[in-house]
Amino acid sequence: MASVFLLHLRWALSGEEICDLRLEAHSPIAGVLAALEACKEPETCQFSVLLDGLLLSEGRSLAESGVFDGVTLDVVRSSPCIALTTCADCTAKVWNTANGRCLLSLTGHNHLVGWASFSPDGRWIVTASADCTARVWDLSDGTCRWALTGHGSGVCCANFSPDSSKIVTASHDATARIWMVDSLDCGLTSYRLEGHRADVCHAMFSPDGLLVSTASEDATARLWTNSGILRSALEGHSGGVESAVFSPDGQYLVTASLDSTAKVWRVAKGSEQTVCVFTLRGHGESLGTSFFSNDSQKVISVSDDGSGKLWSAEDGLCLATLGKLRDICSAAAFSPDSQLVATASHDGAVHLWRAHCGSWSQELAGHSEAVFSVAFSPDCQFIGTASDDSTARIWCAQTGRCLRVLAHPGGVYSVKFVPSQRA
Ligand SMILES: *[C@@H]1O[C@H](CO)[C@@H](O)[C@H](O)[C@H]1NC(C)=O
């Protein structure tokens, strides 16, 4: 008769009990994982099992892994293959990229959802919609926990603070707002960031969570404290500012403007002034966005002139012009290890480039309409793209092969991967 083990499962970090299982000694560790997924959460999280701090391999049996009757196993959430897209059908969708299945369709908005992002702790999703609201969704089951109402016009961007405790929203009503996640249950209080004279197109927290940047069509960017007090107005652009993105080391900010330039600013500490250190000139048309590589060494800018440009963040010199695309360059992404850059175009082309020299690496061919968004997975293995051709695609970053086509009922505006959790 096969011997059956009683297993006590608990969360490795909190020590909190999850459940008890009975499994035969020869069943594989994968059986523990399957039972966990069935009893605990849908496939939005993947799990790993540890015995005395050692990771147990899925293919081996309980007995082979040193598991015995009555043992307590520790469970951690491991890096899942989860992507988030927003679609013209007024939803955001969560996908398991390992099998291409749609796990959750987040319904509730009644106008297009142009932006969605994860909380860094992987618990929440925030969506920003033209219906004047942002919504916060529980990633474990897709329920809408809060609708953030109050903006007088469409919300174009919403981002969490690095500790996942706050959300900043940017709106066409010329304001941004900061929301405290913990107090959302006790009524909708928010700090209003007022002062811009035209649409706010983008807003985000600094890497230390202390500052918020806003970018506006009024040709300025502004820096605020995380309680909404204005710290500085960054003036100098002669056209609308489309994005204002902090460097990952928190020392700089780069603004991208319709005036065809980007500007790099040194973010002030204390009472100093935030000053422009470089103006990145060379593009022939409006910039869509600009941001830093993860190592804060390089800047990419994307332009309606059909090119992306790679710049040195050290001296503001242009290192390379990434192709001459046949149409508007709409999006770009650095791989998290800062080795690769991906650019995407309104003609459906997606290209990969080597970030150290800007030389062409390969084309990701497949989309038939404009590509609006491109992202790398945190482990640098995968690239996600979102297109007006009603698909998002998942590509192997090494070979450029298309691994999954995620079919949507309408154009796809954005794609993001779930952040890796520093558990
Ligand atoms: C991103 O940059 C940080 C800080 O330099 C570094 O610790 C981390 O390893 C980088 N991430 C990757 C994927 O290389």
UniProtKB/TrEMBL annotation:
Keywords: Repeat, Signal, WD repeat. Coiled coil: none annotated. Residues 1-15 form the signal peptide. It comes from Polarella glacialis (Dinoflagellate). The lineage of its organism: Eukaryota, Sar, Alveolata, Dinophyceae, Suessiales. One of its GO terms (cellular component) is transferase complex. WD repeats lie at residues 106-147, 148-179, 193-224, 234-275, 280-321, 333-353, 364-405. This is Uncharacterized protein.
